[in-house]
Design brief:
This protein is of the alpha/beta class. The chain contains 34 helices and 26 strands. Helix 3 runs parallel beside helix 4, helix 21 (about 545-575) packs antiparallel against helix 23 (about 695-705) and helix 32 (about 890-910) runs antiparallel to helix 33 (about 915-930).
């Protein structure tokens, strides 16, 4: 190549190579045994040039290389680098990676409940730890040169996302920010915001997956490709849904019509049935062991199967074990046992038994495991380690595994495309699908990755193709001011500057950007209004005034009609409330119209009956037996007019509504006794509009108006209707603009007003109580501060304080109002009751100040569901007893205990001088941080 160059070109090329060798990037590239991709090189060069970077790339594409280059630059320049992650498991993993590369003396770890080498030049930490450092003015920030924010798309998370924005806004200007994100559809918008708040930021978007992903559907014994290439072969043509899959869906959805056509002979019907049976026998959802066995035979292991249920993951492992599935040979089994025994050597045998160790080990030895948040952290880490080493080949996991944990597989299996989102079963989004299937394909190991969706009844291949082919995953801010944020901001910057900082948030940036489009629409509407106004002009008079009178008349008639309907509903409900068991009535309308016997008049007034699925506000819902032998609970819609008893009947004590014979006998008696009765006709009352003075006045004015006699009156009226409809829409748009402008700042003002009322703020000054609140982080920061101020926890023992503090962090996975939680007796019970009372007072104050919990601002009710478990564990009781009473998986127990340790540490730091609470909190930390809670490796 160089032979073809002129001397000048060779000189220029040599000079370029020399320049590249002189950069920090050159030695960094030599640390890896593979070439960096174009997007990685582009981002690294931008970093070395002093710019911030936002890298948005698919899962598994190697974007963390850019973060590692920031670490490299910091060490070379003698500065510090903080590497932040959203979850402790990721922090632990990144810490281990960096220790291997740079040595334990140069790398530290901070995760809230753990501190390892905290003064090292490179520190891996959770994002919350960095936020707390920024607010406290930590000395560790001195010399900070780079901050890497891994998984920065977490700022969409409605519970924790605000922390990412707080960090980005408050980092010193001298710090270079490296933001690493999954592929998002509005990366440029996010980059624009970063450019605004952090200065020069390069946006690098990589859509290309380093390992191609193939999409499949597994139905019965056959694995179908989801897409079929057309016109141009692999990669060159357009992708269409596999017609075989569409045919399969049509076949399953079709219903046999055998026996309806009398012209067909018996033999023909039998032949059709046999053909239908053979076709349908090819369509079924394979069992979990069948799926793993099939993937093993096709060379598609290791695989991660996503099951959106912890119990489902555990059940899947048991099903595979029961089927006799074995994925490891004898040597593999022995290696697994050696690794597992070494990693769990510090756990006592009694605890191992409680934790289901031996069943877990059997699965691991066979190469099969579960992975979910309910598992002990140590167990999860062992599964991750064995999976990476190829000793566990089939993992059944919940979607939490998709969030950054480095466990790439050759294949990913999705059992269903529906998951529980905390409120309802909902379809997974394209973003979630991309995140889950992004685990498939190991860079440097696999030539291609495979995503397999199991066939489910009613599956729509087109909808699945839409999920797989869509890259719409917008980043949406979840930023909301909190009480702790408010006092910290006011303390550092004062009220006015704090408002300005909050208006720099990504949330406000997005809101303001959306206002631009709305403003443009308002401008167009105003032009339209001017045109409509000209078209409705009448030569006889003011048509706008005439139009107003017509609208007022219409509105008044509508209002009276609604009032009449409401009065009829009230009268009908009052009549229903008078019904008694044994009343014979005539149901006036609906599916069950006709003669009926009241078995149960419905719910007593003022009470709810959720078990039966209705509420007192719905009105009475009588349970009746119809003359056609049906027992049905009717609703108010079945009684548009009042109903009265026609007669009475005795209901036999032996009557059973579920017995067909009982229903038949009683219905027969009903027809005999009351079949001849005819209900009195309900006379429709005179319309109120007929006697309404306002309507009479408006009609008189309309007839007297000059425009009433215009020959083109109705044409003008149509233009006037369009004018007012457009005017109404324009007013709504203007209200939306007003609502979106300065929304964050307005919320901040309300929070400051409440804090001022409670003496946490005095203008731009933070009081002593406010400084205490500044040291308390979490959803219930203000409640914790009020409890300290009121001395609610004074005199409590360590275990009692642990029980109370647990209510500040614990939140049940699913609300269970049916059973009151078990609570410790004595002082702890009284303190918990007082905490709930204080929360009630704060809740009322928030309502007064228009602070809305539904918008993610304010204090939720403390959850006492973990108080008993925390009390028992801090009191020294054994794991077996505590877990059995708590009915909670070990992993959840450990996670809540670690959060409890965190809040206890905050309480110890924030407690007033000389208070017994600080001593009790420190002792409570020692009582909770033992045994199973202390097992989980570094973080």
């Amino acid at each position: 190549m160089t032979e073809d160059m002129s001397p000048a070109e060779r000189y220029a090329a040599a000079k370029l190579r020399a320049a590249e060798q002189a950069t920090a990037l050159a030695p960094f590239r030599e640390m890896y045994d593979f070439d960096l991709d174009a997007f990685q090189l582009e981002a690294c060069k931008a970093l070395e040039a002093g710019k911030g970077v936002l890298v948005a790339a698919p899962t598994g594409s190697g974007k963390t290389i850019v973060g590692e280059f920031a670490v490299h630059l910091a060490l070379e320049q003698g500065r510090k680098c903080f590497y932040t992650t959203p979850i402790k498991a990721l922090s632990n993993q990144k810490y281990q990676d960096l220790v291997k590369r740079y040595g334990a003396e140069r790398v530290g770890l901070l995760t809230g409940d753990n501190s390892v080498n905290s003064e090292a030049p490179v520190i891996v930490m959770t994002t919350e730890v960095l936020r707390n450092m920024l607010y406290s003015g930590s000395q560790s920030l001195i010399g900070l040169g780079y901050v890497v924010m891994d998984e920065v798309h977490y700022l969409s998370d409605r519970f924790r996302g605000a922390v990412w924005e707080e960090v980005i806004i408050h980092l010193p200007e001298s710090v270079t920010l490296v933001s690493l994100s999954a592929t998002v559809s509005n990366a440029e918008e996010f980059g624009d915001w970063l450019d605004t708040v952090r200065g020069d930021t390069e946006v690098i978007v990589a859509e290309h997956r380093p390992v191609p992903l193939w999409q499949h559907v597994l139905a019965g014994r056959r694995m179908y490709d989801l897409f079929e290439e057309r016109d141009g072969g692999q990669g060159g043509g357009r992708r269409e849904v596999n017609p075989d899959l569409e045919r399969l869906a049509r076949m399953e959805n079709s219903r046999p019509t055998f026996g309806r056509d009398k012209r067909r002979g018996r033999n023909m019907r039998e032949a059709d049935r046999e053909r239908e049976r053979r076709q349908r026998s090819r369509i079924w959802t394979p069992s979990r062991p069948e799926v793993i066995d099939r993937l093993d035979n096709e060379g598609l292991l290791p695989a991660i199967t996503f099951i959106f249920s912890r119990a489902g993951c555990e059940a899947a492992v048991q099903q595979c074990l029961a089927s006799g599935l074995r994925l490891n040979d004898q040597e593999g089994r022995e290696r697994v046992r050696r690794i597992v025994e070494a990693r769990t050597a510090g756990i006592p045998d009694d605890d191992l038994h409680v934790l289901g160790y031996f069943e877990w080990l059997e699965g691991l030895e066979r190469g099969i495991a579960a992975h979910h948040a309910g598992m002990l952290p140590t167990f999860k880490e062992v599964v991750e380690e064995l999976f990476v080493q190829g000793l566990v080949k089939a993992v059944f996991a919940t979607e939490t595994l998709a969030l950054g944990i480095n466990m790439p597989a050759r294949s990913v299996v999705l059992e269903k495309l529906v998951k529980w989102n905390g409120e309802q079963h909902a379809d997974i989004t394209p973003g979630e699908y991309t995140q889950l299937t992004g685990r498939a394909g190991r860079r440097g190991i696999d030539v291609e990755g495979h995503a397999v969706v199991l066939w489910q009844r009613g599956m729509d291949p087109g909808a699945l193709a839409g999920l797989a082919g869509t890259r719409t995953y917008p980043l949406r801010s979840s930023f909301r001011p909190s009480y702790n944020m408010a006092v910290n901001l006011v303390s550092q910057f004062g009220r006015h500057r704090s408002r300005e900082l909050l208006e720099m948030s990504f949330a406000q940036f997005q809101a303001d950007k959306s206002v631009v489009g709305i403003s443009r629409q308002v401008q167009k509407n105003e032009e339209g209004l001017a045109g409509y106004s000209g078209s409705m002009t009448c030569h006889l008079g003011d048509f706008e005034e005439y139009s107003r009178l017509r609208r007022e008349l219409k509105d008044r008639e509508t209002e009276l009609a609604k009032q009449g309907a409401a009065q009829r509903r009230v009268a009908a409900a009052a009549a229903l409330e008078k019904l008694k068991p044994g009343d014979v009535i005539h149901v006036p309308t609906g599916k069950y119209a006709g003669l009926a016997l009241v078995l149960d008049p419905g719910m007593p007034s003022g009470r709810t009956d959720r078990h039966r699925g209705f509420d007192a506000q719905d009105g009475p819902r009588p349970l009746v037996l119809t003359a056609e032998r049906q027992v049905k609970r009717l609703a108010s819609i079945d009684f548009p007019v009042p109903v009265a008893a026609l007669d009475r009947m005795r209901i036999p004590k032996s009557f059973n509504a579920r017995s067909p014979q009982s229903r038949r006998d009683l219905a027969s008696a009903l027809r005999t006794k009351a079949g001849h009765l005819v209900p009195s006709r309900h006379r429709k009352p005179r319309a109120e509009a007929a006697d309404d003075r306002e309507i009479a006045r408006l009609r008189t004015e309309i007839r007297a108006h000059p425009c009433h006699g215009c020959a083109e009156r109705e044409d003008h009226a149509r233009w006037a209707e369009r004018y007012h409809r457009l005017l109404r829409d324009t007013r709504q748009l203007e209200r939306r603009i007003e609502g979106r402008t300065n929304t964050i700042a307005r919320t901040f003002d309300r929070i400051c007003a409440l804090l001022t009322e409670l003496d946490y703020l005095e203008g731009d000054t933070v009081t002593e109580e406010g400084r205490r609140l500044a040291r308390l982080y979490g959803e219930l920061d203000l409640l914790a501060s009020e409890c300290l101020r009121d001395g609610v926890w004074e005199g409590l023992g360590p275990a009692e304080l642990a029980a109370c503090a647990s209510a500040l962090v614990y939140e049940a996975r699913q609300a269970d109002d049916a059973v009151a939680p078990k609570l410790p007796s004595g002082k702890a019970r009284d303190a918990l009751a007082e905490m709930v009372r204080i929360w009630g007072r704060l809740d009322a104050l928030e309502e007064d100040h228009k602070i809305n919990q539904a918008e993610g601002v304010g204090q939720r009710e403390p959850d006492l569901g973990f108080a008993w478990a925390a009390y028992r564990w801090a009191s020294g009781f054994g794991l077996d007893e505590v877990l059995r009473e708590a009915e909670m998986p070990a992993g959840d127990f450990v996670r809540w205990c670690k959060q409890l340790i965190d809040i206890l540490g905050q309480i110890a730091a924030a407690a007033p001088p000389g208070s017994s609470v600080a001593r009790a909190a420190r002792k409570a930390v020692d009582g909770v941080l033992r045994g199973v809670v202390a097992y989980s490796s570094v973080g």
